[in-house]
Amino acid sequence: MTARVIDGTAVARRVREDVGRGVAQLVAAGGRAPGLATVLVGDDPASEVYVRNKRRLCVAAGMQDLHRHLPGDVDQASAAALVDELAADPQVSGILLQLPTPRHLDSDALIARIPAEKDVDGLTTANAGLLAQGRPGLRPCTPAGVMALLDEYDVPLAGAEAVVVGRSVLVGKPMAQLLLARHATVTVCHSRTRDLPEVCRRADVLVVAAGIRGLVGRDAVKAGATVIDVGIHRGDDGLVGDVESDAVAEVAGALTPVPGGVGPMTIAMLLANTLTAARVQQGLAD
Predict the structure, then answer these.
(1) 139 in a labelled binding site
(2) Is 25 a catalytic residue?
(3) Is the whole model's pTM more than 0.90, yes or no?
C-alpha cells in the first residue's frame, strides 16, 4: 500500500481563493475590507519569515495589512498599550501576536488583552471556552486547517477512532475538541502515555502534533489509517515532520507531507478567520 498524499498546498490555495471572493463580496455589500494586524516583537529570523508570508497572502486576498513591529527590548506596558490600541481600532478586524515573543514579555497576558472577536489565532480563553462548549467562535488556525483537509479528502469522522498525539493549547487540545464535535471517539496522547505505538494503532485518524521529530513510525499506524503530521523540523536533510513519512506511507491510507501538508493550511485559515471576524464586527455575517 502507498498512502494517498493529502495536498495541503492545493487545498490552502482554494481556501485563500474563497477568502478573496468573500472579501470582494463584503466590500461590494458596503463593508470595509478586513484588516489584519500582525504584531512582531524583535528580529527573530524565523518569525520574520512567518509574518512576511502572512502579510503577503493577506494583501493578495484583498485585506488591509496593518502590521506593527516592536523592538526586541520593548517593555510589557508598551506592548500591552499597542494591543489595546489595535483592539480599539475599527479598521483592525484581527490581531495576531507572533509567537514566541522575547522571554522578558508575558505573552499570555498580551494575548488576554485581545478581544475575542479579534482573536484570529483562536488563543484567548474566551474562544477556547466557546470551542469547549461547542458554540460559534474563532478556532485555532492549525487545527481548523486539519479539519478542512479531512473534509476535503472525505475522511469519515462520525464514529471513527481518532488519536491526537500532543496536548498543547495551540494544537493538541483544540484538535481533540474539534474532532469530538464531529462525533469521533478521541484519545489524547502525551509524554506520559504508556505504549504510545499501541494506542496510535487504534486510530482510524491519527493526528501527530508532539513537536518530536520522527516520533511516530510504521509500527504505530493501523493499515489504511489517515495520518496528519503537524510537526515540522529543519535538518540537514530539509524539512521533516513528527512522522517517519517514508515508512508510514507503506501502511497508511492517506498522509500529509512535510512540507506541503498542514503548514500552508495554517495561514489560509488565519485569513478565513479574519474574514469571519470582519463580517461579524460589521454586522454582515451570514
Answers:
(1) no
(2) no
(3) yes
